[in-house]
Amino acid sequence: MRILIAEDERDLNELIRKKLTGEGYSVDACFDGQEALDYLMSAEYDGVILDVMMPKMDGMQVLREMRGQGIQTPVMFLTARDSVDDRVKGLDAGAKDYMVKPFAFRELMARVRAMTREKYGTVSNCLQVGDLTLDTGSQEVRRGSRRIDLSAKEYALLRYMMTNRGIVLSRERIENHVWNYDYEGGTNVVDVYIRYLRRKIDEGEEKKLIHTVRGRGYVIREEND
Question: pLDDT averaged over the chain?
């Protein structure tokens, strides 16, 4: 999952980025509304965290511009404004959620999970394909009774594929959702990480779950899906 943070308090911005990265998200971060809009116009995100009061363009303006451009990415507002009128204004403008500063990071992470679940139509933290399960809350992955240890990027890739169970994902689409603008690796990065996942998930198993669709990309599914 790829998240954009737009928050002009640099220390808070960095703390949120670290927390999200630790939860397995790919994160881009910026410090003003115009920069946030530039990011949104050039990449596809699974969620956006917007400060309301920012330089150059406030969060409400960013949201209006997004929706005007047809960008339906779910948005969570962060703000020190805690009046009912302010919350109503933010939600009526099209935000999915509204958090008042100061806040607990555990709650922020839970709300981000809920925001991204809604985008993909899932109703719980537990994703499942066959006997493979992934809990986005605990970040635990199991194949049957076997626990699988994954690196942060392996986890992010698996989570994105399981969220899109049965959908063939191109290499470009995977890269755009699992890696951020800071990535400077090779062009075959998706293929490399798919091999890592296959080794940990499918090796030694009778039923393979990760499949290559020649000329199109990769999909995670049971054979009879």
Answer: 88
What pLDDT was estimated at residue 184? 60
Q: Which residue segments constitute the domains of the chain, with CATH numbers given?
A: 2-120 (3.40.50.2300), 126-220 (1.10.10.10)
Tens-place pLDDT, residues 90-120:
788 788 888 888 889 999 999 998 888 777 7
| DSSP notation for the chain | -EEEEE-S-HHHHHHHHHHHHHTT-EEEEESSHHHHHHHHHHS--SEEEEESS-SSS-HHHHHHHHHHTT----EEEEES---HHHHHHHHHTT-SEEEESS--HHHHHHHHHHHHHHHHT--SSEEEETTEEEETTTTEEEETTEEE---HHHHHHHHHHHHTTT--B-HHHHHHHHS-TT----TTHHHHHHHHHHHHHTTT-SS--EEEETTTEEEE--TT-
Rounded to two decimals, the pTM is 0.70
Angle at Cα 132 formed by Cα 128 and Cα 135, nearest 5°?
A: 60
Token pair recorded at residue 216: 């199109």
The two tokens of residue 210 are 């990760």
